[in-house]
């Protein structure tokens, strides 16, 4: 038999062989004792797909293999991934999700290699979504769509625990929030709509509660110290686990609730407000006031008003003093 007359592989028999390779991959991901793929295994799987896609019609199975590639992910997610996530809650669910997402990316990488011939020819010709994208979309449609609300609530609740001084696993939050970013495949929509919007709302509510207590109990300098500390901590949160694009929005919320809402009350506090600070020459507190209020739109207007009154009053007093002496 000449070389070019290779034996036709029918769909069922070819797919049965591929299925063995895919099952081996799943076992490796599930941590079952399974030897790694050798280069021979890999070549056999790759070649089987190549042959099944280059046979003469009607034995060119490119379209069927493209569909089966997707079905392999769907089957694994429905039978294994989702059940393992549904039985866990809160932080344990977040840990499982991070592990499952990492495994999913490995699976996409390996299966895309086995099916590589599809990507190069079939998909390019028909302008279909590439294998990599198909693999990630399966996770998005089946896992992410079902769980993103629960995940968001669990993350926000951990952030609030941290604000209350508890130790939390920041690396875990970073990994979870990376999923919101990566699932967008280059767009930030999922992170912004499914996580960030709710997180900002929660931040505003949190600081609104804090501020309404502090404004009653604290002197103006103490309140400003707390506000400055909160802004520093929120910035720190961004650098550790939130996406950098959240920083301006987050600080804006905190500034609004702590400073804009209470500006008048704070600056006009009887024994410790702006008047008192100017009178007693509290340079450090005044410079903190300038730092904080200069970040807010029109924030320095009330400060400069009080400063003007103070200068006028001092000046008038000096003139009167000079007149009296004369």
TrEMBL record:
Gene Ontology molecular function terms on file: ubiquitin protein ligase binding
PANTHER family tied to this protein: CULLIN
Lineage, opening ranks: Eukaryota, Viridiplantae, Streptophyta, Embryophyta, Tracheophyta
Single GO BP term: ubiquitin-dependent protein catabolic process
Ranges of residues in domain Cullin N-terminal: 23-323
Family: Belongs to the cullin family.
Name the UniProt record assigns to this protein: CULLIN 3B
Domain of life, source organism: Eukaryota
């Amino acid at each position: 038999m000449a070389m070019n007359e290779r034996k036709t592989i029918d769909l069922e028999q070819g797919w049965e062989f591929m299925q063995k390779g895919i099952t081996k991959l799943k076992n490796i991901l599930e941590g079952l004792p399974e030897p790694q793929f050798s280069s021979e295994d890999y070549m056999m799987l790759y070649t089987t797909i190549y042959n099944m896609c280059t046979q003469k019609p009607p034995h060119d199975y490119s379209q069927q293999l493209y569909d089966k590639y997707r079905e392999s992910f769907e089957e694994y997610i429905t039978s294994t991934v989702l059940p393992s996530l549904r039985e866990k809650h809160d932080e344990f669910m977040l840990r499982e999700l991070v592990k499952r997402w990492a495994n999913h990316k490995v699976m996409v990488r390996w299966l895309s290699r086995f099916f590589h011939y599809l990507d190069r020819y079939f998909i390019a010709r028909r302008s279909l979504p590439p294998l990599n994208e198909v693999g990630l979309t399966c996770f998005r449609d089946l896992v992410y769509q079902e769980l993103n609300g629960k995940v968001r609530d669990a993350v926000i609740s951990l952030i609030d625990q941290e604000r209350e001084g508890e130790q939390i696993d920041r690396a875990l939050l970073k990994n979870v929030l990376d999923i919101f970013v990566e699932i967008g495949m280059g767009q930030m929509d999922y992170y912004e709509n499914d996580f960030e919007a709710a997180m900002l709302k929660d931040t505003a509510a949190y600081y609104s509660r804090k501020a309404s207590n502090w404004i009653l109990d604290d002197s103006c300098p103490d309140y400003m110290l707390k506000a400055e500390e909160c802004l520093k901590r929120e910035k720190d949160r961004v650098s550790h686990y939130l996406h950098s694009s959240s920083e301006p929005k987050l600080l804006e919320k905190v500034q609004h609730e702590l400073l804009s809402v209470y500006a008048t009350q704070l600056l006009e506090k009887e024994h410790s407000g702006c008047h008192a600070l100017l009178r007693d020459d509290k340079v450090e507190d005044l410079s903190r006031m300038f730092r904080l209020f200069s970040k807010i739109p029109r924030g320095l207007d009330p400060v400069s008003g009080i400063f003007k009154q103070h200068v006028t009053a001092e000046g008038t007093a000096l003139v009167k003093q000079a007149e009296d002496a004369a």
